[in-house]
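Quick one, probably user error.
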């Protein structure tokens, strides 16, 4: 019947779904995505509040920019006393990625891959500047600059599968919360 959920559309075979109602699978998926959404909202509020508090403590103008999704990077640049131009790299990288996806959708794979690579380079440039901004913010708040490098530890996930992967991921995922919390609310 048209409009009816078919688990085989998800690439599941009969033995993988034997005895499981497809609505149960969809229910678990909805709960999972709801939990991820709530965690994302809580994280956004925490980082925005911490960045705004840090900007106020550093006497940076317009601390309210921390609450605006892309403008918060401009605030980071202002707190680091650096120029905002890497934001152009961010915008260009996203635009080129989108255009590359359009080329891929229209079966122009070579052009699409070249655009994906160029977009990736532009986004990598932005990520490097974002780490530099974090480093300078840490130093300005009289904290070690290398704290800005600890989230990169999550890249340890790309080593062969070992229990260290979970440790690396845990450090890389939790450290930004700790770092921005200390930057915003420590006495120093």
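Nope, works fine. Designed sequence:
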């Amino acid at each position: 019947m048209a409009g009816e959920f078919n688990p085989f559309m998800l690439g599941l075979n009969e033995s993988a779904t034997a005895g499981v109602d497809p609505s149960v699978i969809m229910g678990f998926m909805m709960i999972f995505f709801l939990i991820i959404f709530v965690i994302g909202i809580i994280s956004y509020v925490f980082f925005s509040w911490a960045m705004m508090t840090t900007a106020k403590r550093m006497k940076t103008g317009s601390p309210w920019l921390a609450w605006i999704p892309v403008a918060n990077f401009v605030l980071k640049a202002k707190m680091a006393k650096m120029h905002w131009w890497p934001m152009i790299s961010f915008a260009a990288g996203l635009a080129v990625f989108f255009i590359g996806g359009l080329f891929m959708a229209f079966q122009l794979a070579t052009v699409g891959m070249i655009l994906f690579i160029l977009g990736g380079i532009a986004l990598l440039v932005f990520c490097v500047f974002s780490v530099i901004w974090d480093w300078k913010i840490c130093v300005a708040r009289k904290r070690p600059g290398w704290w800005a490098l600890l989230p990169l530890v999550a890249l340890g996930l790309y080593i062969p599968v070992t229990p260290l992967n979970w440790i690396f991921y845990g450090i890389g995922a939790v450290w930004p919360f700790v770092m921005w919390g200390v930057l915003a609310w420590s006495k120093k």
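The mean pLDDT is 86.
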